[in-house]
Structure formats: C-alpha cells, structure tokens
Amino acid sequence: MTDDLTRLTVKEALRLLRLGSVSAADLVTAHVQRIERLDPHVKAFLRFTPELWEKQAGEADRRIRQGDSALPLLGIPLAVKDVLCVRGVEATAGSQILKGFRPPYTATAVQRLFEAGAVMLGVTNCDEFAMGSSTENSGYFPTRNPWDLGRVPGGSSGGSAAAVAAGEAMIALGTDTGGSIRQPAALCGVVGMKPTYGRVSRYGLIAFASSLDQVGPFARCVDDAAITLSIMSGLDPLDATSSDRAPMEVLSNFGGGVKGMRLGVPREYYDVKGIEPGVKASIDAALAVLRMQGAEIVDVSLPHTDYALAAYYIIAPAECSSNLARFDGVRYGISEVDAPNITELYLATRRKGFGGEVRRRVMLGTYALSSGYYDAYYLKAQKVRTLIKRDFDQAFQKCDAIVSATSPTVAFPIGSKTQDPLSMYLCDVLTLGGNLAGLPGISVPCGTSDGLPVGLQVLAPQWGENVALRVARAFEQASGVGAEVASVV
Ligand code: GLN
User: Fold this and answer.
1) pTM, to two decimals
2) Could you tell me the distance, in angstroms and rounded to a whole number, from the CA of residue 255 to the centre of ligand 1?
3) N- to C-terminal Cα distance for the chain?
4) Is 81 considered catalytic here?
5) Which residues 6+ apart lie within 8 Å of 154 measured at CB?
6) Which of 18, 24, 244, 476 has the lowest CB atom count within 10 Å?
C-alpha cells in the first residue's frame, strides 16, 4: 500500500487526499519509507528536511479537515535541487565551498510551491554549481540512475530526476542552463521542463550562467509538470529578469492534441554525431505516433548547430567566472581563516572549496573575458548566439514546435566520461540551443533502448510553453509511454 502511494501522479494524489482516503502525513510517510529503503543505493538526496515536512504536511491535513482543499499542490511531496535557497536549510550548490551556508530567505520558485501546499522532503544532489551532465561533479558523491545503479542519472539536476524516477518524490525542482533538466529527465525516464527565459523568477537561485539559467519541474506526467511550472511562473519584483507577462495558464489549451500541428525535425538534430541507433529508433517510433495523431512532420534546419556547443562553452564559463567571484571565504560557506592575509584567504578558500570542473570553467571564463581576448571569444560567441536564435526563428516559420531526441545517448556508465570533459559536454548538443535562444522545452519519456529510458524533446517558440506541453501530452496519451517508477533493487 505505501509503495503504491509513491507511484501516484499529483492529480491522483489530490483526488485521494480530497476523498479523505489518504492524508498528507500518509503521503510523506510512504515517501520517507521509500527513501529509507532506496536512497542508500540511489543517493538522490544530499539532506532531508523533516522539520519542514512535518509542519507542511500537518498544515495540509489541517486544511483538509477544515474542508479547504483547493490548493493545487496540497500535500504533494517535493524535492528541491541544491541550488535553490530555502530559509534555514543548508544550501551548497553541490559544492564544498558553501558547506554550512544556511540562507536567510527562500527562493521565489520554491516559496510559490510552498504557498500552493507542497511538502518539502529534502535537498537533492547535483553537479557542483550545476556544471555537468552526470551529477558526478557533485562535491559530495555521485547519484546513481534508478534504472541501473551502475549508470549516471544525467545532470546537473541528476538528484531531482533520480528522486522522481525512484518514487522518492512526486515532483522535484531542477535548473536548466544547457540542458540540466531535460537531459537527466530523459536519462531517468521522467518528464522535465525548462521554461522560456524569464518565465520563472531566479530570486534565491545560486547563479551559474545568468543569461541561460532557468528553474523548472520534474514530474511523472506532463500534466504534473505543467501545474508545477505554472505555479512558479510569473513576475517577481525581486528578479528584474522575470517577465511581466501574465503567468502561464494551466490546462488551458494544451489538452488539444496535435492534429493539424506542424512538427519540425531539424536534420542537424536528427542525425547528430554520436546518436545511438536505439535512441534514433525510439525517436522514429515517436514521430510515427505523432504522425498517426494527425501531426504533419516537416523537415527544418538549424544550420548553426555545429557552433552551439562552442558558443555555450564560452558564454557559460564567462558568466560563471563572474558569478562565482563572490565565493571568497568572507561572505558564505567555508573560510580558510588561518591564511596570513586577505588575498591568501581568498585563494586558499577557493582552492579548497571548488572542484576540478568549476576551476576549469572559472579559468576558461576569466580568460575569455580578459582584455585582448574579449572580442575574439566572448563577443564572437555572443554573435554566434544571435545566429542560433535566428535559426530557431526561421525554423518556427515552418513549424509550430521542434521535436528531437533529448540526449544522443541513454544513461552511460559511471566514470565513463569523467576523464574527458569534451565527451561530457557533448551530452547537451541537443538541449543547449534552446538555452542560447531562451526557448521553452520539455523532455517526455519515449520508450527504452537496451532497457534504458529515452527522452523525446519538444521545443517551442518563446512563451510557447503550452505548445510544447500540448505536443508532449498528446504523445504521452497516444503512446501510453509514461514515466514508470524504477524498481531499483
Ligand atoms: N551540462 C551543461 C554544463 O555542464 C549544462 C548544465 C546545466 O544545464 N546546468 O554546463
């Protein structure tokens, strides 16, 4: 019975709660028991928040008893990536440098979920400062893929994806700078969505690359992702980059199916270098399903795709070198206080606190921004970014949404790419264009290859979340391929 409660979608859980057949406390207990059993193997969580889940589940049950059960996430167990601040809860961005940091405020995205009734279970593991595609760059430990514990869950939001896949949380939050929600969602067989740049407030998000970072949900079905995202969306006076457009309307028009829609398949994505035959076969099958549902599949081209990775790996490190300058041993986290002077304190703290990938990026980014190289690298990359955005604009003249694989490969064995940063960077070739162009994108499970999940990515024009959701939902319904809860051990 309790394991059954960890397989529910939000909609099903709300129904049971409103009927009174389960309580919010029951839901929490079921998830906590599952975590106790599975998380020693999966290692999705860095830390737990019993004080919050007790308070929030108690409050949810009190509301239900009083007949007030309208909140859209009432009693729903939530996991939060370790880059989002929650007041009083240690937040480290997967890094040793922030060890012991307890933020005095809560990120707006998380706060809005709390106000909608969500119950926080804990903080999930991630690549250090969200830099990576496998969660092996965590400053604590790697997370394992619930479908095969010898493999990575993807990254950087691998802990959140694994938690939802393993039935340890019903929904989870991640961040996506180059693919860190969609790629782990694909590798773990769950739904993950990155909204349009500006849709969700980043107040209280520990920044990686500010012109690319977005917060978004992981869930077990498209509807759950849509509800969670819509609750988080909308203007926040505390984040100047959040858009003042009206917040997303939920469940308004994305139930409509794909009949008559034009879905573009970019040839550069379809035949991307290194795509596994099993992944391609799953995508072909998905396209056939969409065609059967009445969509028109059209060829499109994103001619600057070859340059996207290079542009991203200038822009993201440049921004990170600037954002991470604040971690100096004075303001947050650890401090090498015995250093003889302030400069030594900075150096010693950063040397001790940052891992290899973060250092590599800080060095790359500082170099790309230095005088004499700024024009050659950073400015050039920004120009390429404009061309990539233009590619998408042109493609969207011919189609309503773009469909492709989310990741060229299924989950890979732990350790297989850690010695070769470039091979790790290639994990995001199909996702990072969406970040450079600021587009919304979703990954939805579309079958398996060698028993491991494959994800279908749907990208839509800016502010077209409902278009992406509509395609993803139509596929989910027609294919019958939903996120399954992994059996783990
Ligand atoms: N894997 C990409 C990187 O390492 C993307 C990370 C992300 O989206 N946070 O930068």
Assistant:
1) 0.97
2) 31
3) 18
4) yes
5) 133, 134, 135, 145, 161, 183, 184, 185, 186, 187, 188, 407, 411, 427
6) 244
